[in-house]
Amino acid sequence: MLSLNNATASIVLYQTDKSELSRVIDSIFKTKENLKLYLIDNSPTNDLKTFSDYNSQIIYIHNPSNPGFGAAHNIAIEKALESGVKYHFIVNPDIYFDQDVISSMINFMEEDLSIGMMMPQILNLDGTVQNLPKLLPSPFSILWRKFKKPAKAYEKFINQYELRQVAKEMIYDAPVLSGCFTLLNLEAIKKVGMYDDKFFMYFEDWDLSRRMHQHYKTIYFPLVSVYHGYDSGANKNGRLFRIFLNSAITYFNKWGWFLDNERKNINKKALSQFR
Known about the structure:
Layout: E1 7-13, H1 18-31, E2 36-41, E3 58-62, H2 69-83, E4 87-91, E5 95-96, H3 101-110, E6 115-123, H4 139-147, H5 151-161, E7 172-173, E8 181-185, H6 186-192, H7 204-213, E9 217-228, H8 238-255, H9 261-271
Parallel strand pairs: 1-2, 1-4, 2-3, 6-9
Antiparallel strand pairs: 4-8, 5-9, 6-8, 7-9
């Protein structure tokens, strides 16, 4: 089993609710007291700095220029690389858990260094499963997820696209993993790069998943789970929807819109695991 001295984690903050932040920090340090945690705070003020007093393993970095989600996590990833650790967790502030997810994921990755990224099962606050592992998206996928019509055809599409019919406890290689709770193999990050800071928010995790999946396994690991207060802000807030749209354009400009043979081949290979 691997020493936790070989792992770090980061949470990016922006005017984050203090009770929410306290809950995720409690989750981390109740299970792993010696894990170094970076709080990268993109807020205009440093009011959240008081959380660095919570534990000597917390390193607070105020980052009021607010370059975005991925760019802020990159600050912590760079520090993790400089310190020579092997693994780094990306954690959203709206996550919490009550089991030792951290050791289970690290130990599994340690047994197979062809794994570049992992995510656990992600649960809604009521305990239902969030369908976050996905196939690589096309522009059509993004639009259909927004409009959801016609209902019968949409159901068939979404069951395949979000891999909803895969056995609940199956560990598999998913082309897209969510960035809400992710374990990164830092040797793999050295090869494929960190988050692309062209994405302010949204799609940066899909972009990294795709780059990682080209060279390493990107594993969905449902044997452990975390709770995630999913808000779907882009569906409720005009500003967030514009950011979402801009990120979608950035993503498809980078990887291809409708003519993307690599996407087709990767998705076909992913689906072949379930036959």
